[in-house]
UniProtKB/TrEMBL annotation:
Family: Belongs to the glycosyltransferase 23 family.
Biological classification of the source: Eukaryota, Metazoa, Ecdysozoa, Arthropoda, Chelicerata
UniProtKB keywords: Glycosyltransferase, Membrane, Transferase, Transmembrane, Transmembrane helix
Residue ranges of every copy of the GT23 domain listed in the record: 191-462
Region feature (Important for donor substrate binding): 358-359
Name listed for the protein in its UniProt record: GT23 domain-containing protein
Length: 542
């Protein structure tokens, strides 16, 4: 990434050096030129010899200065090459042509990865200093951090139009492929290959949506139409008019417009046959019970999309999961009306920070959308921050619908969806990643904003790093070596694979070095994510 930015920087440095050289030459030769003209006007001057000696001395000094500048220039170039892993080759790696046939330049993958890595390392340094220094020092550090991030944002803005267009293009591709997969021709539904997902996992709303996400991932990888069996879904299943929509259909659109029938000529459960492709219908277990785990389960992303996605987004798996969540959670017309009514009532606007608070979380920002299942926060906590100038958007009545007795009612269902929706539309999200609701909002955030920008860093988690329940190993790669400073730390060698267990938000993460088998702490800035990819039949060329 730094290749494009550093070429410009080095060019400026070279220009600056040339200007300095010219100034030195001007300063040195100025008196020489003046003396030459004076000599013509005063030929009979008696101190010719002393002036000649002065000229020789100045010329000698000029040569010494130029030699020193050349040495400094070489030293600077060496410093840049040693400490900034840049390539002083041309900035542009590819050229595309717009409709007006003008060449459009866009940054390389290396540029994008390095730019995001600098931002990540700034935040890691901030976490470290916050844990090690006093509040008066941190005031200075906070100010410096904000300026650094602002400068990085300024650099990023140069290519924002390209990023938005590319992310939209990639999003359209994924959404269209899912729509195509889920809507075979009506006459083909009876013969289509299907995957059956039971929406009855014994857990809360966020967990059940993520269960459905996992089912869709398997469907996309195997290119089978996903059939959701939501007959026993506990949400919004209360008695009402026979004409009233219940359950899933009361808040979301069906997964298909043409194929909702799970019948087929042959059927088998996932783990009972080695030859699954020969069956028309496959029943899928929950991810925790899955055997013969395929390599396309999270945290893998489709190989066919990986190059573009890695370049465009700081957390490719979150973006990919967000695309699936966006498709699954397409609101019904009634749900859209409800969301818009509540947004108008709250006077929801941006910029805004979304805060999801459970009974153990306490944090706030200037303009806050507060989503919580603890209604007492509105009376016990909010007032104190309102007195300090904070403005809270939300409704304590929504919190009350999350109580045990009302959790599965239609009101509770609508309100938890509303919370997730508005949290995802926030500019920044503060929550705990141990919460399924928090992670759903973060995933949706990557595709919910009109700007279509990378929002992978637009969060602050009070506990865990991001994860997907039932995921495969989360690995990182050491890019810098590390020697332990105490018994809690582990060795890192460049290229070691680290199974990360979490970020301690103090500059250090905890994990297992899979090469040395050591388990302990290591500096987070010395590793990068190991992006896993797998083949998805849905994205194979036709």
């Amino acid at each position: 990434m730094l290749s494009s930015f550093s070429v410009t920087s080095v060019s400026r440095l070279i220009i600056a050096v040339v200007i300095v050289w010219l100034l030195i030459i001007f300063v040195i030769t100025g008196p020489l030129i003046g003396w030459s003209h004076n000599r013509e006007d005063s030929i009979g001057n008696a101190d010719t010899n002393s002036n000649g000696e002065m000229i020789l001395a100045r010329l000698s000094r000029a040569m010494n200065e130029l030699t020193a500048l050349k040495s400094q220039n070489e030293e600077l170039r060496s410093l840049l090459q040693n400490y900034l892993p840049i390539d002083l080759s041309p900035v542009v790696t590819s050229v595309r042509h717009s409709s007006d046939s003008k060449a459009q330049q866009f940054p390389s993958q290396e540029y994008e990865l390095t730019r995001r890595r600098i931002e990540s390392n700034v935040n890691e340094l901030w976490h470290y200093l916050r844990a090690k220094t006093n509040s008066s020092t941190m005031q200075f550090v906070n100010e410096m951090r904000h300026h650094l991030l602002y400068d990085l944002e300024t650099i990023e803005k140069r290519d924002n139009r390209w990023r938005k267009a590319e992310l939209k293009s990639l999003s359209d591709l994924v959404q269209n492929k899912m729509k195509e997969l889920q809507n075979p021709a009506k006459e083909s539904c009876g013969s289509a290959k299907k995957l059956i997902c039971q929406l009855n996992k014994g857990c809360g709303f966020g967990c059940q949506i993520h269960h459905l996400v996992y089912c869709m991932i398997v469907a996309m990888a195997t290119k089978r139409t996903l059939i959701m069996n939501a007959h026993n879904w506990r949400y919004a299943h209360s008695k009402g008019k026979s004409s009233d929509a219940k359950g899933w259909d009361s808040v979301f659109l069906p997964l298909s417009e043409t194929c909702l029938d799970e019948s087929g000529s042959s059927r088998v459960s996932w783990s009972s046959s080695p030859d699954l492709d020969s069956y028309q219908v496959i029943d899928l277990p929950i991810i925790d019970s899955m055997r013969k785990r395929p390599n396309y389960l999270p945290l893998s992303i489709p190989q066919e999309l990986s190059s573009r996605l890695i370049q465009l987004h700081g957390s490719p798996i979150v973006w990919f999961i967000g695309q699936i969540v966006s498709y699954l959670m397409r609101p019904s017309p009634e749900m859209i009306d409800y969301i818009n009514q509540q947004k108008d009532r709250f006077k929801f606007r941006t910029p805004i920070v979304g805060v999801h608070v459970r009974r153990t979380d306490k944090i706030a920002e200037r303009l806050v959308y507060l989503a919580t299942d603890d209604s007492s926060l509105w009376t016990k906590e909010v007032k104190e921050f309102e007195d300090k100038g904070y403005v809270f958007i939300g409704d304590s009545q929504i919190s009350q619908t999350a109580s045990i007795g009302r959790r599965y009612s239609i009101d509770s269902l609508r309100n938890i969806i509303l919370d997730i929706w508005l949290l995802s539309e926030s500019d920044f999200l503060v929550c705990t990643f141990s919460s399924q609701v928090c992670r759903l909002a973060y995933e949706l955030m990557q595709n919910r904003t009109d700007l279509k920008t990378d929002k992978s860093n637009a969060f602050y988690s009070l506990d865990d790093i991001y994860y997907f329940g039932g995921q495969s190993d989360h690995n990182q790669i050491a890019v810098l070596s590390h020697k332990p400073n105490n018994k809690q730390e582990i060795d890192l060698r460049i290229g070691d694979i680290i199974g990360t267990a979490g970020n301690h938000w103090n500059g250090f993460s905890k994990g297992l070095n899979r090469d040395t088998k050591q388990s302990g702490l290591y500096p987070g800035f010395k590793t990068i994510e190991k992006i896993e990819t797998a083949n998805f039949k849905l994205f194979e060329p036709n």
